[in-house]
Amino acid sequence: MRCPSCKKKQFLTKESRFNTLLFSPILMIVIFIMNVWNFSWVIIIPVSFCLFLIFMLIIPYFYRFTDKEAPFV
Which UniProt keywords are given for this protein, alphabetically ordered (predicted)? Predict the structure, then answer.
């Protein structure tokens, strides 16, 4: 991604990548729990879709950028 003002390439910080990585398991856990409790797929699919949309709307607020690329580990 490029900075709109200075046009330099920007990278996600290590903390930002870690924080956004935590959102994926939440959706999987919810789907798993709903399967264990025998919810119908008619309920699981819309709930999963709504959670996915909520995550996609929230994730950009967790992004922090830097001009230096840092390794994830």
Answer: Membrane, Transmembrane, Transmembrane helix
